[in-house]
Amino acid sequence: MNEEKINLKNLRGKLAHLPLGLIEYYESIGSTNDRAAVLAAENAPNFSIVLADEQTEGRGRSGRSWFTPPGVALAFSIILRPQANIENSQIALVSGLGALAVAKGIKSSVGLDAKIKWPNDVLIDGEKVSGVLAEAHWIGEDLQSLILGIGVNISKNAVPPENELNFPATYLSHGSGKLIDRLVVLEAILQHIVKIWPMVGDSSFIKDWESLLEFKGKQVQLISGKEIAITGEIRGLADDGSLILMLEDNIEKQFKVGEIHLRPNIDKVMN
Ligand code: BTN
């Protein structure tokens, strides 16, 4: 079943109370992150957004593609202009901002409890409902903009075929059993982004992110590519958003946000 139709007028109306910059809507586009990068290069202000009903070349993390067929998902990107308290080393935290805002937005808009598979996948009942792709754009040494791209599976057809999944996936209307208004979910997520953005880098932000971590206190495996890198128990997050693991030899080690993936320590693993 497809969700309600979006147009620029109902989109603008719904978001009018938020301090956003430009708002663009496309029925179909390659990738909203690519369009947002163009707008950012043209000096679009902080909190400008690009939303699309369909993406034909949606991008995920680690060079994967992101499936966005028409009418069944939320796919949008928001431009963030770096602020004084963001240091280069903290850029990775912006992925956490995305995941935190999605998890909180899902709770406030549809009442479902969502958790974060570190660093930035959002899960409902252990299955991925949303992914975040944060990309930094530089001019020389200066960070010009961060593009935070967010995809949320709203109804069943947003979930790719099983053989294309690298982690079990779900969709929002599955958990709620109701028809979901995508704009209500979008508005809630944006509201949280606007609220949390000034706190990125603060200890309260890290604590908030940590409080929603899936698998906290549980054994997980960290994987780099197809290699199982390490097994340990999740202890929490360090000040820079790194994951703190207690390894098998009782030594704590921190892992930075990067090309490492996490999965529960189960016998049957997904590739
Ligand atoms: C992931 O989990 O791999 C991240 C997926 C990010 C998908 C979103 S959808 C909107 C934005 N545009 C893209 O091309 N990708 C992001």
Quaternary state reads single chain
Q: Which strand order do you get reading across the main beta sheet?
A: 1-2-3-7-6-5-4
Protein structure class: alpha+beta
Radius of gyration: 18 Å
Bound ligands: biotin
Count of helical regions: 6
- The percentage helix is 10-25%
pLDDT under 50 segments (min length 5)? 266-271
Number of strands: 12
Q: What kind of sheet is the major sheet?
A: 7 strands, mixed
Quick rundown:
By secondary structure, the chain is an alpha+beta fold.
Task: Describe what you observe in this structure.
- The two termini are 30 Å apart.
- It contains six helices and twelve strands.
- 24% of the residues lie in helices and 31% in strands.
- The protein has helices spanning 8-15, 32-41, 93-110, 172-176, 182-196, 203-211; strands at 23-29, 49-55, 73-80, 115-117, 121-124, 127-139, 142-153, 219-224, 227-237, 243-247, 252-255, 260-264.
- A hairpin with a 2-residue loop joins strand 6 and strand 7.
- Helix 3 packs across helix 5.
- It has a seven-stranded mixed beta sheet, sandwiched between helices.
- With 271 residues, it is an alpha+beta fold.
- The structure holds biotin.
- Residues 31-33, 55, 58-61, 64, 66, 75-77, 121, 131-133, 149-151 line the site of biotin.
